[in-house]
Amino acid sequence: MHTTPQPRRAAAAAFIGTTIEFYDFYIYATAAALVLGQVFFPSSDPVMSTLAAFGSFAVGFIARPMAGMVFGHLGDRLGRKKMLLVTMALMGLATAGIGLLPSYASVGIWAPVGLIVLRLIQGISVGGEWGGAVLMASEHAPAKRKTFYASFAQLGSPAGLLLALIAFRLVTSLEPEDFLAWGWRLPFLASGVLMMVGLMIRSGVHESPEFAKVRDNNETARYPVKDVIRTCWRQILFAAAAVTIGSAGFFFTNTFMITYVTQYQGIPRSTILDCLFLVTIIQLLSQPISALLAERIGEGRFLKLVALLCMVTPYPMFLLVGTQNIVLMTVGIALAVVILSALYAVIAGYMTQAFPVHLRYSGISIAYQLSCALAGGTTPLIGTLLASKFSGQWWPLAVFFTLLSALSLIGVCGLARLRANPVVTHAAKEVYS
User: Fold this and answer.
1) What rounded mean pLDDT belongs to the chain?
2) What is the dihedral of CA 304, 310, 316, 319, to 10 degrees?
3) Which CA distances in Å does 52 have to 18, 171, 254, 351, 386?
């Protein structure tokens, strides 16, 4: 008999596991903004080096939709827990491998080739991770608490970013030549230790009871990806749109913003890292509150409200960032992040209920990873191009943020209509009847 109830254990494991996964993913994003361009894509033009580094960052997202399909299929066939152990091992090995890669100066073209291969493996890992972590938390949860419990998987994003920022804050305090030579590698190498911790924690959680019931009743789908695309394609499209700002918004504020303020505002990188550190603490504290509030007032109503607010937040954010005052910068970025993270905290539990259990891992993984590939991975790249083309003007960047938020609003409204329509919501359950 376990002393800790499985729902709480599953939520804690989802939080710790996704924290480690997102730490690995965010240290790459932070390194891409700070150093990878110089080490693996040297150029006389710093903008071109940065673009190349963000291009390698986007590569990780290319693998995510396919990985979502593969792990979704396996997760709906074999179980959620097994897939989460595999994704954890993949991510830890790939990230530590990046820390061991020789530079372009040492081995030439093989350095960026190796970087891109390992980045693809990172993308494959995260592509399979998210859906399983959300489901292990939500499917263990009591019936009326699924949104709150699922939000613990989402809490891994700010917690992982916090660890990544701490790691890079420590190594950026080194002398610039030491940071460039070996200091940036230390956060990547630390991933090997974190991987072992995560594997031990996840091994102590039982399989999802909802999946176990489907498996025991021999109701698992033979071809879950094919079935979910055939019967739930509307849910997939609207869920992918709904999560847009929740994915792309973080890479806008936490990845692109580092490049924007250092290259175009002349603000020291230590200042923006301190600013983002404070913002991430605020996000970590605000996300569970958002999930509780959504359960109280209704998830659909809450998501529509925060998507609308996301559309207007970039304008005060850029005005405050433009003051170059660290307090006002923190307030501006925190305003945007708290609102977009409110959507991010709630959307996971909301979208899972749009899919039947036997197709759920495939459905939410395809939707989320499709959105991440199309919007999340390209956001720092598009932001850099806009900042370069409209040098000195922030309004095109704000409009870009607004358009991403509008996509989320459309998606939330579409999901709300589908969930309210019993014919569409239960169509996939007819597959085996």
Assistant:
1) 86
2) -170
3) 27, 23, 18, 34, 15
**pLDDT over 80 (residue 267):** yes
DSSP 102: P
Q: Which residue has the tokens 């081995």?
A: 107
Start-end of H helices in 144-232: 146-154, 156-171, 176-178, 185-189, 191-202, 209-216, 224-231
Question: What sign does the CA torsion over 323, 328, 334, 336 have?
Answer: negative
User: What span, in angstroms and rounded, lies between the C-alpha atoms of 187 and 100?
Assistant: 11
Residues 6+ apart with CB under 8 A from 206: 6, 10, 81, 140, 212
**pLDDT single digits (tens) 334-389:** 999 999 999 999 999 999 989 999 999 999 999 998 898 888 778 888 888 898 88
Tell me how far apart the terminal alpha carbons of the chain are, to the nearest angstrom.
37
Digit-coded pLDDT (tens) for 312-329: 999 999 999 988 888 999
The span from the CA of 126 to the CA of 108, in Å, is 29
Cα–Cα distance measured from residue 213 to residue 36, given in angstroms and rounded to the nearest whole number: 47
Q: What is the pLDDT of residue 425?
A: 47
Q: What share of the chain is helix, strand, coil (3-state, %, to 5)?
A: 85, 0, 15
Residue matched to tokens 């580092």: 258
Q: What is the pLDDT of residue 44?
A: 63
58 contacts 124 by C-beta, under 8 angstroms: no
pTM of the model: 0.83
C-alpha torsion sign, points 76, 408, 296, 426: negative
Longest pairwise C-alpha distance within the chain = 66
CB 276 within 8 A of CB 333: yes
Place of tokens 């990878």: 36
pLDDT category of residue 431 using cuts at 50, 70 and 90: very low
| Mean of pLDDT values over 250-279 | 83
Q: Which of 137, 184, 125 is nearest to 14 (CA)?
A: 137
Query: Cα separation of 375 and 240, whole Å?
Result: 10
241 within 8 A of 408, measured Cβ to Cβ: yes
> Whole-angstrom Cα distance, residue 126 to residue 403?
25
Take residue 146 and report the two structure tokens written for it.
Answer: 């699924």
Map out the domains of the chain with their CATH numbers: 6-430 (1.20.1250.20)
pLDDT band at 432 (very low <50, low <70, confident <90, very high): very low
Lowest mean pLDDT among 138-142, 185-189, 222-226, 403-407: 138-142
